[in-house]
Design brief:
This protein is of the alpha+beta class. It folds into two domains: 169 residues, no CATH class; 193 residues, no CATH class. Helix content is 43%, strand content 19%. The protein has ten helices and 14 strands.
Length: 367
């Protein structure tokens, strides 16, 4: 059965907000202290530290006078942050990501994770450890029938919004009926996705739509004195605009990815190096706004959920320069050429639709 996270917004009371703020601060402190201790152990003795050792350090820190306040918050989020640090180091050793970094006090997002022993779930109400009242959740959608959260993550974003994410076993996520259709997807900037069927999904350009409002808010922030209350208010206004952009972009990508997975047995995409493409200063902002990597991540886990296939085609495959009718490959093709005629067979191609058809053909040939 698939484990799925359901995320809801909630509005804490003053007491709950203070308790969560203390928890966030303690989680950040424990994470940073453990990271520094692990780095020191490696630099000094070339010794890799385990989660068990960091857990013993946490027990020792709680007994000291300077860090005795760690006993005032739930112990579970502190243990969980040590597990997160262990996973981060494991990913670093396997060369799947960079070295773990310290958590900043003014980070865009603060969070704490509670396991089953640190919260109470009763009659659809969630009460966290060290709290006497349940959280005031906004139920934007119901949980699956009979589902109970196994893990709860409480977070606050840069815009000051509070969220709780519940991990539950979701019986509604199961493989769909087999389909005979497959689709090739060519991502772009003007058109977010061009399908091999000839359909073009326009790029909403969410960041560009709010760019003037964002620039005005950022200029206002730059004029405020550092450390002042007015600067804090201006920073919040900037964060709210960024949150609005991100929410709209995520919603659009979820709808698009879900439709592609539900309608097709196989989805074929290009294995693009987005990080390398972001180095182009003329296109970086537009590529970031299009969020191609997020679309691919959604397609990856949704095809896994629903029994579909996601096929990737090598990034050096000449999908744009190849004629989908006869296979003739042109030597070069400028970005401003949106339609072209094949010199070999005379077929007239739309640049993006032709690329999507070639991606589909290459992906089906490899599978």
């Amino acid at each position: 059965m698939v484990k799925r996270a359901y995320k809801f917004r909630f509005y804490p009371s003053r007491e709950q907000a203070r308790e969560l703020d203390r928890t966030f601060g303690c989680v950040r402190l424990v994470y940073n202290r453990a990271l520094e201790a692990r780095r020191r152990a490696w630099v000094t003795h070339r010794q890799r530290t385990t989660y068990g050792q960091t857990s013993q350090w946490l027990t020792e820190w709680k007994r000291t006078e300077d860090l005795s306040f760690l006993n005032e918050v739930s112990a579970v989020p502190l243990q969980q942050t040590l597990r997160h640090l262990q996973r981060a180091f494991a990913a670093y050793w396997e060369r799947r990501c960079g070295h773990p970094r310290f958590k900043r006090k003014r980070s865009a997002r603060a969070s704490a994770e509670y396991t089953r022993s640190a919260f109470r779930w009763r009659d659809g109400k969630l009460t966290l450890a060290k709290m006497s009242e349940p959280l005031n959740l906004v139920w934007s959608r119901p949980l699956p029938d009979g589902a109970e959260p196994s893990t709860v993550t409480v977070s606050r974003d840069a815009a000051g919004r509070w969220f709780v994410s519940m991990l539950v076993a979701d019986p509604t996520v199961r493989p769909l009926e087999s389909s005979a259709t497959a689709v090739g997807v060519d991502v772009g900037i003007n058109n977010l996705a061009t399908l091999s069927t000839g359909e073009k999904v326009i790029n909403p350009r969410h960041e560009a739509a709010d760019r003037r409002k964002l620039a005005r808010a950022q200029r206002s922030l730059a004029r405020k004195m550092k450390g002042s209350a007015n600067r804090a208010k201006a920073r919040l206004r900037v964060a709210v605009i960024h949150a609005r952009i991100a929410d709209r972009r995520r919603d659009h990508l979820h709808k698009l990815s879900t439709r592609l997975v539900r309608e097709n047995q196989a989805v074929v995409i290009e294995d693009l190096s987005v990080a390398s493409m972001m180095r182009n200063r003329h296109l970086a902002r537009s590529i970031h706004d299009a969020a191609w990597s997020s679309l691919r991540q959604m397609l990856e886990y949704k095809t896994s959920w629903y029994g579909r296939s996601l096929i990737t085609v090598g990034r050096w495959y000449p999908s744009t320069k190849m004629c989908s009718a006869c296979g003739q490959v042109n030597r070069a093709m400028r970005l401003d050429i949106r339609s072209w005629t094949c010199p070999a067979c005379g077929a007239v191609h739309d640049r993006d639709i032709n690329a999507a058809r070639n991606i589909l053909a290459a992906g089906l040939a490899e599978s």
